[in-house]
Amino acid sequence: MIRARIMATAMLFHDNDLLMMKRSPTRTLNPGMWAAVGGHLDPGEISSPRNACLREVCEETGLQEEEIIDLKLQYILIRLNQQEIRQQFIYTAQTTRRDVIQTEEGVLHWIPREQVLDREIPFIFHRLLEHYFEHGPTDHIWVGTAGFDQYSAPEVHWTALVDPGMN
Predict the structure, then answer these.
(1) Is residue 141's pLDDT more than 70?
(2) Could you tell me if residue 35 is left (phi over 0), alpha (psi between -120 and 50 degrees) or otherwise beta?
(3) What is the reported pLDDT for 167?
């Protein structure tokens, strides 16, 4: 039986640094790896991943909504992991402050942009960061689906999410 896991995540920047979490080695998903802040949508948040993202950011960093500038949905990632379809809404934003709280989920660090990709990062998120650093913020949302290239190597396929009815 295939299950679904829906998540919301924020790539938070302050100046040229990205807030990243070195995940606790006891976490279920990607233990010990580096990731952005975020988590699962609660049942009442299914129609509003933005609200889930803000809640997760507050829980994991202490940053309040008014300290987050230009929160924008930039990516939707979809992948199959064994018998689970994972859908992740990725938002980007700037923060007004750098001081954050620490939680049991992992340790937060501000990483200079040029050092971010040197971390041990889950495959699909690593590809997202490469894409974002190459293309920057855009007016549209990108959908990334995990798959394989012509040589059977893991790859993320990127598509601009647009409404064809809006001309």
Answers:
(1) yes
(2) beta
(3) 59
| Residue whose C-alpha is closest to residue 89's, from 76, 108, 104, 71 | 76
Dihedral of CA atoms 116, 118, 120, 123 in degrees, nearest 10, equals 80
Residues 6+ apart with CB under 8 A from 104: 24
pLDDT in tens, 49-58: 999 999 999 9
The token pair that represents 164 in the structure block: 């064809």
Q: Tell me which residue of 9, 146, 30, 159 sits closest to 90, measured CA to CA.
A: 9
Q: Which residues of 96-111 are buried (b: 16+ CB within 10 A; e: fewer)?
A: eeeebeeeebbebebb
Say which residue, 154 or 26, is predicted with more confidence. Answer: 154
Sign of the dihedral through C-alpha 151, 153, 119, 11:
positive
**pTM to 2 decimal places:** 0.93
